[in-house]
Write a structure and sequence with these properties.
18% strand
Length: 216
């Protein structure tokens, strides 16, 4: 039975959130990828090049933190090095989501951080910073993403590429991805009309503790 697949619930969640990437307009085609920490030595990550609608839990690779695949017959996402680097450098992170969401990626292509023109940006930190450009699917991209995230941010724009979010769980990282795209859209629209007012860092820091129950 499918429930006997090791780490079935987490691998199934990756399937479900992968389909949500398309439904929520956070990516197109097979773009983007998701992962979740299973324990200190293993993660589960979406497979490479498989349409999200066709991924079954057994297709989701389980990978050691050294990159060795221990479960699954399909290759892991080509962005595996970036995911592993986040987990290595941020032990607080339990889930990572990489999207190509259109509004946020627009700012990534401009090389412009998204400021706190909406209070929901507090899900990510005082802004969504921009990582330096590196070729996709490389260790260098992982290094750049981790450097931009630092210890303070739950999201970064990957310059000329997309968005990476990281949080306590896959569910939380996915929520951050939704909020990044929403705030990017609001900021874009506000800039088209006038000059957005940016909330001070002190207010964003105060709000971060109040958003844990948002939407519940």
């Amino acid at each position: 039975m499918t429930q006997n697949i090791p780490h079935y619930d987490t691998r199934n969640a990756i399937c479900e959130y992968g389909r949500s990437l398309l439904e929520d307009d956070l990516t197109t085609g097979t773009g983007g990828n998701l992962s979740a920490r299973l324990d200190e030595d293993h993660i589960a990550i979406s497979p490479s090049g498989v349409p999200y609608e066709e991924i079954a839990p057994s297709d989701v690779p389980v990978v050691r933190t050294d990159g060795t695949v221990v479960e699954g017959e399909i290759d892991p996402s080509t962005e595996l090095p970036m995911h592993l680097e986040v987990y290595e450098q941020r032990p607080d992170v339990g889930g990572v989501v990489h999207t190509h969401s259109p509004y946020a990626t627009t700012f990534a292509s401009l090389g412009e951080a998204i400021p706190a023109s909406h209070y929901l940006l507090a899900f990510t930190g005082t802004e969504v910073p921009v990582a330096e450009y590196e070729t996709h699917a490389t260790q260098a991209l992982g290094d750049a993403a981790v450097e931009a995230l630092g210890d303070s941010y739950n999201a970064t724009l990957l310059r000329n590429h997309g968005v990476l979010t990281a949080d306590d769980s896959l569910e939380d990282a996915y929520t951050v991805a939704l909020m990044v795209e929403y705030c990017a859209r609001i900021h874009h629209q506000a800039c088209a009309i006038g000059e957005p007012e940016i909330l001070p860092d002190e207010e964003i820091d105060r709000l971060r503790g109040k958003l844990d129950s948002y939407g519940q």
